[in-house]
Amino acid sequence: MTFACGVLNAQESERTMLLRTLSDGPWLCAYYLLNSNDELSSLSPAEWAGRCVDEEEWIQGEGPLSNSPDQFKTTEWGSQLQPLLVRRHFTLTEGQLNELLTKTIVLTCSYDENPKVYLNGSLIWSTSGWNDNDYANFVLIPRQKRLFVVGDNVLAVSLSQGSGGGHIDYGLYFNGSFSTSGVENADTEKAPCHYYNLTGQPVSAPGKGVGIVRRGAVAKKIIRF
Q: Could you tell me which of 13, 122, 156, 214 has the fewest CB atoms within 10 Å of its CB?
């Protein structure tokens, strides 16, 4: 089932990349390999898809990821053996954010299989199956565009383990001109995270299990796996 999003008019032409796909070169990411689809289904997005997630045990690499030597194989992913989590960071200034809210922003994705895409921890699109080497394009609706923030942003995706091929290439774009200087793969300007155990005592970093993380005025429980 496709999550609520608009569908891009096929007549749209010139586009500016906010987060590039392979057509503009490999892209930096952090990725994590899970043990099973059951483990994937048991995870809450708060555990892995939001802005303030400890990536110490994640692999820092390049996408796209694929299990076969096709056009998407920048990094090998054994999709027949393990589900996949991917996180991509990008930064926005206040001016860029305000301008983005006036744009038609499109998520583009070539996938195999069962992707769920999150912007700063909130689900913005999901579908089942795969689309071979094609790209699906979906327009973000206004409430989804309001998920962008000044500073660090994260566009994350999960994919299921499957019996056949597997790959992921995804990005964001919009039509018209826009200054993307310093947006993708830049040093992030995110507020520092502060960690606490469940009794409220500060700790230097979260251990495995349940804890609390605070960034600015926002605090939430996390589970490190």
A: 13
State the burial class of residue 143 (Cβ atoms within 10 Å of its Cβ: 0-12, 13-18, 19+): exposed
Nearest C-alpha neighbor of 169 from the set 78, 75, 42: 75
Structure token digits, residue 143? 């409430």
Which of 156, 160, 166 has the alpha carbon at shortest distance from 133?
Answer: 166
- Tens-level pLDDT at each residue, the chain (225 residues): 333 344 444 334 467 889 999 999 999 999 999 999 999 999 999 999 999 999 999 999 999 999 987 778 899 999 999 999 999 999 999 999 999 999 999 999 999 999 999 999 999 999 999 998 899 999 999 999 999 999 999 999 999 999 888 999 999 998 765 555 456 543 333 444 555 555 555 555 555 554 555 443 344 444 444
Angle at 221 between CA 127 and CA 82, to 5 degrees: 40
CB 120 within 8 A of CB 100: no
Structural contact between residues 104 and 98, judged by C-beta atoms closer than 8 angstroms: no
Among the listed residues 142, 90, 140, the one whose alpha carbon sits nearest the alpha carbon of residue 117: 140
In terms of Cα–Cα distance, which of 87, 82, 86 is closest to 33? 82
Structural domains in the chain, sorted by start: 6-190 (2.60.120.260), 191-225 (no CATH)
Tokens 């996408």: give the residue. Answer: 63
Q: Beta 75-76 vs 65-66: how paired, if at all?
A: parallel
Q: What does the alpha-carbon distance between residue 138 and residue 106 come to, in Å, rounded to a whole number?
A: 5
